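Our consortium's second objective concerns turning raw sequence data into structural hypotheses that experimental partners can test. To show how far this objective has progressed, the report includes one record in full. It was chosen at random from the queue rather than selected for favorable results. The single chain below, 267 residues long, was entered without modification.
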Amino acid sequence: LPFAYRDGRDKYDGIMRCLREAHVDCDLRIIREALNVEQFRQSLSTPVAGAICGTVGCFDENRRDIALLGECLGLCQRRKVPLVGLDWPQETFRRQKLHRCSFFNIDSERIGELAAQTLSEAGNYVVHGFVGFAPSCVWSRSRGAFFARELRRQERYAIRIFKGEPQTDAVGLQAWLQALPKPAGVFAANDYTADFVLKACARCGLHVPDDLAVLGVDDDPVFCVHTRPTLSSIHPDFEEMGYLAAQELLRLVAGRSAGVRQVVAGE
């Protein structure tokens, strides 16, 4: 689990709460950073009862991240280690014959809907915009698509999508934000992306929330509390996700679940 962001730390809290409540006495090996195949292989070099594997990555069209996850999944299958994957894309395990695996994902549809409802209730904006993590990022595109769908359901059709990559195209992002009719409500795919939006607003003299309201996802205090202005954000229940993942792993280890099971976690 990567601990650099709130989601990894909250998932870990949920895992530990479940193990305490279940009175499980175990030797827990923790990799506190983004997934690395060699580290994962080393963690399986001695007998392991089961594994929970979170991930950080955009899962883009180059498929590099997906190939990495596939290697880890293959290691567990060959060594018959039960695995619970957190936030793995479906491409990793779809149409594969797997045994004793479960996958938990945050509900992108619900997040997109919540973002649209939150901004709709916050003010009467001339236009709504979406800034994704990267154009090729699968989960980011999903959040943007469901955000736009919910706005159209509300008969709000003035929707703008930023086509660039905010981390590398600061000039393009500033120009896009300046061109939006004001006031505007802007949804960013996560807090990390929203931070780039806030900085771009500051550079080009746009006032938040008067000119633009900005909404992120993850409710990470690194971005939400310590930015100026502070950032509003959707809070997915990552701790509950970790708790449910640990419950599922205990079932897998006990042989009470077989095949592949996918669970979508909500807000």
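The partners drew two points from this record. The CA atoms of residues 58 and 210 lie 31 Å apart. The chain has nine helices and nine strands. Both points have been shared with the crystallography group to help prioritize constructs.
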